[in-house]
């Protein structure tokens, strides 16, 4: 659902900014109850306010119903599901980082911080479940759980995040055909046009062999996207015909957080924008025309 994707990206950006504000203060070596309590209060207000606003600004315009599920797993070539996956991962990661800043134990960071994204996004699914127009999506709930799963799994296995999720976007011709749905300008399209969005698994090469001479900032990335989508599905009743297809990518990337700098400002900027995949030479394999090479893909 495109409306939900907007909420996911906005939540990601706002929580990332909150995390970076907190990171200016020195991490506590022991449990700091004042910090912990302030985090709990702040996150509760942010999550509660977002859900109330969403309920008032969106759901009130649609008929209510008894709670029900709706299977939308085949819509948008699963691009919306990957959006849930990425956002739950980052919201959970930020939840861990702020609890770490407060001196909370690693165990409780994983239990209460890493799962924050799953809890918040699943609450949105409950609102969907009581809307006659939508319905709770089992696929969305599974994607909401997969993000924290990747986060927690790496912490348990390596005590660090060697593989991160990233996002890139380029404008496409499809938004012009349905601007109300896919966006009227660049910012709207970046949030709403799945045709131009690509999601990446970006792995840091050096972290898998720390005795090697690989640059610490160099990553290799696997991407997924889809194009040809004007509607979520391919029903014959759609006014405009569409031929959606999948895209798979192999590219290089940069882990901005591993670039050496003495500037605290730059460190904060790098950390905030590190979820964005940088433009780089890219090999594409798609289900429509086969193999393509992009000298610079974004």
What does this structure look like?
- The chain is of the alpha+beta class.
- It is built from ten helices and six strands.
- Strands 1-2-3-4-5-6 form a six-stranded antiparallel β-sheet, covered by helices on one side.
- The chain is globular and about 60 Å long.
From the structure above, extract its key features.
alpha+beta, 298 residues, 6-stranded antiparallel β-sheet
Q: Helix and strand layout, with pairings?
A:
Blueprint lengths: L1 H21 L10 H25 L21 H23 L4 H8 L2 H14 L8 H21 L4 E7 L4 H4 L1 H4 L3 H7 L4 E8 L13 E10 L17 E10 L9 H10 L6 E7 L3 E8 L1
Antiparallel strand pairs: 1-2, 2-3, 3-4, 4-5, 5-6
Helix pairs in contact: 1-3, 3-4, 3-5, 3-6, 5-6
What is the gist of this entry?
The chain is built from 10 helices and 6 strands; from the N terminus they run H-H-H-H-H-H-E-H-H-H-E-E-E-H-E-E. It is of the alpha+beta class and 298 residues long.
- Residue share in helix: 40-55%
Q: Determine Rg (CA atoms, Å).
A: 20 Å
**Element-by-element helix/strand order:** HHHHHHEHHHEEEHEE
Distance between the termini: 23 Å
The secondary structure category is alpha+beta
Q: What's the total number of strands?
A: 6
- What are the low-pLDDT stretches, counting only 5+ consecutive residues below 50? none
The largest beta-sheet arranges its strands as 1-2-3-4-5-6
Mean pLDDT: 89
Main sheet? 6 strands, antiparallel
């Amino acid at each position: 659902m495109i409306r939900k994707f907007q909420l996911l990206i906005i939540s990601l950006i706002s929580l990332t900014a909150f995390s970076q504000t907190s990171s200016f203060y020195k991490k506590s070596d022991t449990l700091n109850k004042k910090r912990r309590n302030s985090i709990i209060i702040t996150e509760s207000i942010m999550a509660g306010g977002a859900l109330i606003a969403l309920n008032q600004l969106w759901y009130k315009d649609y008929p209510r119903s008894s709670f029900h599920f709706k299977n939308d797993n085949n819509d948008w070539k699963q691009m919306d599901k990957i959006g849930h996956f990425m956002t739950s991962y980052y919201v959970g990661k930020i939840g861990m980082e702020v609890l770490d800043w407060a001196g909370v134990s690693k165990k409780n960071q994983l239990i209460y911080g890493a799962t924050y994204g799953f809890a918040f996004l699943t609450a949105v699914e409950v609102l969907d479940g009581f809307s006659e127009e939508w319905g709770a999506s089992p696929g969305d709930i599974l994607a909401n759980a997969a993000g924290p799963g990747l986060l927690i799994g790496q912490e348990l296995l390596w005590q660090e995040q060697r593989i991160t999720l990233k996002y890139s976007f380029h404008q496409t011709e499809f938004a012009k055909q349905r601007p109300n749905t896919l966006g009227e300008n660049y910012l709207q399209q970046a949030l709403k046009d799945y045709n131009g969005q690509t999601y990446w698994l970006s792995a840091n090469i050096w972290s898998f062999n720390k005795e090697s001479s690989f640059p610490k900032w160099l990553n290799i990335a696997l991407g997924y996207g889809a194009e040809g989508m004007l509607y979520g599905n391919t029903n014959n009743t759609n006014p405009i015909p569409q031929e959606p297809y999948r895209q798979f990518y192999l590219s290089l990337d940069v882990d901005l957080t591993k670039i050496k700098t003495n500037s605290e400002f730059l460190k904060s900027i790098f950390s905030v924008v590190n979820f964005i995949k940088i433009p780089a030479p890219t090999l594409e394999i798609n289900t429509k025309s086969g193999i393509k090479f992009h000298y610079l893909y974004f």
